[in-house]
Design a protein that fits this description.
about 35% helix, binds N-carbamoyl-L-aspartate
Length: about 325
């Protein structure tokens, strides 16, 4: 089995990836994948053809599941998804998570793509798995493959991330996409990061320490409208209501964390708006009527997930 990132076989955290590896290997490979798909060859890459992927998704997913399955399919791999394991597997009879992973290891799979409900479960799976674990989101922990496609999308728009001012907006406390994105953004020499959230949804100390360690200028604010004209990239998130305690309340005055027509018009001509999706109407952070604005590139971003996940599967599984 190939060891992809130094000694690391599993994809657990965005911490694993260096700027050099991203720019020289993953992004190049992702562009190659796009090129391959545009030319519609019968077979993409013999190295990974017929590899078998097992999907274990304990939480709902649209983009991550579909783009991983499509990526695998377009690379000639086989995907097995047997429904939500919390009801369809023997975990419903009390089997431990570790035993479940050990069992999946017996059936000739080449990797497990895991979306779990709790922070740290991908790392727990990796401890008992002989085949690579790819973390497709672990509770309020991380979502490294989403962050890979996010930085790929920003890199495509600006040619680099060096010198950019980026606004991370909304639920910075519970959004795992934010937690992984910060780890990757810290690889570049950004001009500044604005952390724009209601006070009760501020970014945790671990991620703030990462930015501090990299000496990136950071400013926390509750108001997107106040700083929008400075931003090259606005990265919106939805409220992760499923992770919040039931007593959770956000004051109406703290809801200046959503995009409006006037905020969008006030942003620089070349600026871009990203969102990992899904967006929803709890806060309407990205209203439907702004969808087709040229600054809003959420569907390019989602499509890039296919190329980036093809490239990642290729890097993890070629042997
Ligand atoms: C995100 C996730 O699952 O963390 N969705 C995704 O994978 N694109 C974001 C979210 O659910 O808010």
């Amino acid at each position: 089995m190939s060891k992809v990132f130094g000694d690391v076989r599993h994809v657990l955290s965005a911490n694993q990836f260096s700027k050099e590896w991203l720019e020289r290997t993953l992004f190049v490979d992702a562009h190659l994948m796009r090129h391959y798909l545009e030319n519609r060859p019968k077979k993409l890459l013999e190295l990974v053809e017929n590899k078998r992927l097992r999907f274990l998704f304990y939480e709902p997913s649209e983009r991550t599941l579909d783009s991983f399955i499509s990526a695998a399919d377009l690379l000639g791999m086989k995907s097995v998804w047997l429904g939500d394991p919390s009801c369809s597997s023997s975990q419903a009879k009390g089997e431990s998570f570790e035993d479940m992973i050990r069992i999946v290891n017996q059936y000739q799979y080449d990797a497990i793509i895991l979306r779990s409900k709790s922070l740290g479960e991908a790392a727990l799976a990796a401890k008992v798995s002989g085949i690579p674990i790819i973390n497709a989101g672990d509770g309020a922990g991380e979502h490294p493959t989403q962050a890979l496609l996010d930085v790929f999308t920003i890199h495509n728009s600006f040619g680099t991330l060096d010198g950019l001012t980026i606004g991370l907006v909304g639920d910075l406390k519970y959004s795992r996409t934010i937690h992984s994105l910060i780890r990757l953004l810290a690889r570049w020499n950004l001009k500044k990061i604005y952390l724009i959230s209601p006070p009760v949804l501020k970014l945790g100390e671990t991620e703030k320490e990462i930015l501090k360690f990299q000496q990136i200028e950071v400013e926390e604010t509750t108001s997107l409208s106040a700083v929008a004209s400075e931003l090259d990239v606005v990265y919106l998130t939805r409220l992760q209501v499923e992770r919040m305690p039931s007593s959770f309340v956000i004051e109406p005055k703290d809801l200046d964390v959503k995009l409006t027509r006037s905020i969008l018009d006030n942003m620089k001509e070349a600026s871009k708006v990203l969102h990992p999706l899904p967006r929803n109407n709890i806060m309407s952070e990205l209203p439907e009527e702004l969808t087709n604005d040229p600054k809003v590139i959420i569907f390019d971003q989602a499509r890039n997930g296919l190329f980036v996940r093809m490239a990642l599967l290729h890097q993890v599984l070629r042997s």
